[in-house]
Amino acid sequence: MSRTPGRLLARATVLPAFALAGWLLVAFPLLLIGWFTPLAGLAAGVPAVAFAAYAAVRWTPEPRGDPPPWWPVAATLLVAAAFTAVQLAYHAEALVIRRDPASYAQYTIWIAQHGSLPIPQGRALIAGDAPGLTYGSLAYYQVGDEIWPQFLAGAPLLYAVGHWIAGPAGMVLVPPVVGGLAVLAFGGLAARLVGARWAPLAALLLAASLPVQWASRSTYSEPVAQLLMLGGLAVAVDALSERVPLRGRWGRPHLLAGAAGLMFGLGLVVRIDMLRDALPVVAVAGLLVLARRGQGVPLALGLAAGAGYGLVAGFGLSRPYLEHLSASLDPLLVICGAVVAATAVGTAALWRHGVPRTDRPPWLPTAAAAVVALAAVGLALRPLLWPEYGHGDEATANFVGQVQDIEGLPHDPDRNYEDMSLYWVGWYLGLGGVLFGTLGACLLTRRVLLRRAPEWVLPLAVMAWSVAATLARPAITPDHPWASRRLVVLVLPAFVLLAVWFLAWAARRLEALAPPDGSPGGRVLAPAAVAVGALAVLVPAAATSVRGLDYRSDVGTIRAAESLCAAIPGDASVVLVDGVGHYYGQLIRGMCGVPVATAADGGAVLRAVEGIAERGRTPVLAAEKEERLRMHAPPGALVEHPFHVRSDQDPSTLMEPPSSPWAFHGDIWVAVLPDGVPPAREGAQ
Superkingdom of the source (predicted)? Predict the structure, then answer.
């Protein structure tokens, strides 16, 4: 029987992660040296992506076991394609920086147009070092004479390809495609660990969850990180499917292990918290070396290479952001160093004895499974017994208090809701998803420790660690759908994968219990039970998504930004005279290509306008409200309203999943000052 369907599914589900890794390997150095241009990207990126695609096809082994029929392959591809189509239809246009997607979008726009970092402040084109002027804005740090974006470069490096092709309108279409490819990669991971016939169900359940849909509609980093991590896990399963000795010539398993480690490490170029999620890979690499498996060394080397990229990306291009996170990042770096050192010492100490026998004493696997169950129970009881308080800053507390008032909750601004993390998973996968996923985790933990499921060692270690660490401390502003970001990369995939594995296990058990006479009742029992179990996850997930995501966020922002830029002369320097600079400063600087400063008061406005005029440039005043702008604009100046958006935006909820959008009102009024006419003096009073 032909193995073509299984071969196609195996290769197609890892090819996107290979291609993404190949692109990041060449795109990040180009940005680092300031050559990230369309021509350089084409010259370096096309060969790198082509080689990565060739490696995916060439290195991916034949699936083991009975060859699957065509229908699981077609169904998995159909789920991924349908997910992508829906996301494209509902894609957002977040360009005004209120939260992370617009921050990433403006990061993307800058490097796509300029090819380098940092961002010049342009103070020499405004008023030099005149007091009362600032150049940074939300998510863009003013450091000396430069501006540095907040986040890491991985997602913008990918989204910039869409900008090169079709400008901002092309950029915002890339995340839905990446999200669809991540769903496809997840289907491939499920096919490897559960079986090809279960891949469509796994892909469908993940695709139905609200956080996965929501994150891939905007320029968030989570879809990119999810594709790397899920693709890396699938590649790692392929790499470890064949036993090769520690010593000897390297072959396909070694290359696959190195590629998987590289993908895990490159996740750090996308998100700094991938440093935590990759920690189990270090320990598993040590176990492979102890087991005299040849894949251990290339896995560790690939991880080190990718993490090296990530550390350079963080400390080279996002140092102000990492300094802002130092209270949590510094301990994490210490923990990472301790894990690497402990793995090295432990490997050396146990070298003669090999991998410890986890099935001895015989009660240990069952006890470990019980610990998993108790941990889940503890998370479920946590809101009742150990409610969490404290945000670390007053602004977050004030915001939480406002959302509490809107939602009709008791006013308690210090409440951070981290204790609700397991309930968040229940919101988006239903009670069935939480229950089946937990049962799957318990059973698989026992099987792994009994050495009966070696293919699950690495995936279970990575997923269990990520789920435990994330649910224990989400470390995010707790309103939804914003807080659901923490569940996207690995938490929801872990629950779905474990739930599907549990359903497959239950189906096999029910089939074994069926009467041997082949009666119709026995044949129907297992499929019926699986269908009921699948619906117990799918129906709540789909209902929450349909109710909470029936809108497009920030629609019209791209057109409004183009109108704004058209209203600003090319030789202008812009002075922002009210709080508009906090949200729109980088939009004007990056999309309109003119220097921008925010004035603290009327005197600063006067100094800025005088400095701009002295430099032979056109002064432009901008404000969010017309009356505020007219306080500073000279009499008779033409005041325009080029940026005017009335759209939907993501809501904020604390104790229930989001169900309807909030209104977004975006406004910028501008006044182009005539030559030689100073701003109104009353603005200085």
Answer: Bacteria
Give the whole-angstrom CA distance, residue 469 versus residue 374. 16
Helices marked H in 350-477: 364-385, 394-407, 421-449, 457-472
Alpha carbons 680 and 678: distance in angstroms, whole number: 7
The confidence band for 685, taking pLDDT boundaries of 50, 70 and 90, is very low
The structure tokens listed for 42 are 């084409």
Signed CA dihedral, 389, 393, 399, 402: sign only:
positive
Q: Which residues pair with 666 in a beta bridge?
A: 645
Q: Which of 504, 584, 674 is nearest to 72 (CA)?
A: 504
The dihedral through the CA atoms of 266, 268, 273, 276 has a sign that is positive
Contacts of 146 (CB under 8 A, 6+ apart): 118, 119, 120, 121
Cα–Cα distance, 200 to 75 (Å, whole number): 6
Cis peptide leading into residue 516 (ω within 30°)? no
- pLDDT tens per residue, range 586-632: 999 999 999 999 999 989 999 999 999 999 999 999 999 999 999 98
Q: Quick one: which of 179, 161, 201 has its CA closest to 45?
A: 161
User: If you write DSSP's letter for every residue of 523-578 in order, what string do you get?
Assistant: HHHHHHHHHHHHHHHHHHHHHHHHHH--S-BTTTHHHHHHHHHHHS-TTEEEEE-S
* Three-class SS state of 521: helix
Mean pLDDT of the chain: 94
Tokens encoding 496: 């779905």
For residue range 68-103, list pLDDT tens digits in order.
Answer: 899 999 999 999 999 999 999 999 999 999 999 999
- Cβ neighbors of 74 (< 8 A, separation 6 or more) are none
3-state secondary structure 280-345: HHHHHHHHHHHCCECCHHHHHHHHHHHHHHHHHHHHHHCHHHHHHCHHHHHHHHHHHHHHHHHHHH
pLDDT tens-place string over residues 152-161: 999 999 999 9
Handedness of CA 588, 590, 593, 598 (dihedral sign): positive
User: Apex CA 378: angle with CA 375 and CA 380, to 5°?
Assistant: 115
**In sequence order, what are the beta bridge partners of 620?**
574, 672
Q: How far apart are alpha carbons 554 and 541 in whole angstroms?
A: 25
Residue type for 266, please?
Answer: L
Terminal Cα-to-Cα distance of the chain (whole angstroms): 86
What is the Cα–Cα distance from 106 to 651, expressed in whole angstroms?
22
Vertex 282, ends 277 and 283: CA angle to 5°? 105
C-alpha distances out from residue 324 to 151, 321, 329, 430, 596, Å: 11, 5, 9, 36, 24
Distance CA 180, CA 213 (A): 9
Round to whole Å and give the CA distance between 183 and 89: 17
- State mean pLDDT over 407-412: 93
The whole-model pTM stands at 0.95
φ, ψ at 115 (rounded to 5°): 75, 10
Q: Please provide residue 217's backbone torsions phi and psi, each rounded to the nearest 5 degrees.
A: -90, -15
Instruction: Take residue 505 and report the two structure tokens written for it.
Output: 């296990």
Residue type, 26: V
Angstrom CA distances, 6 to 56, 257, 299, 455, 459, stand at: 15, 21, 25, 18, 21
- The rounded distance, in Å, linking the Cα atoms of 534 and 205 is 8
Q: Is the dihedral of CA 78, 80, 85, 87 positive or negative?
A: positive
Partners of 599 in the β-ladder: 133
Rounded CA separation 52/55 (Å): 5
Sheet containing strand 133-134, edge to edge, reads 133-134, 596-599, 572-576, 618-623, 662-672, 639-649
Q: Which pLDDT value is given to residue 81? A: 98
For residues 276 and 519, what is the distance between their CA atoms, to the nearest angstrom?
Answer: 52
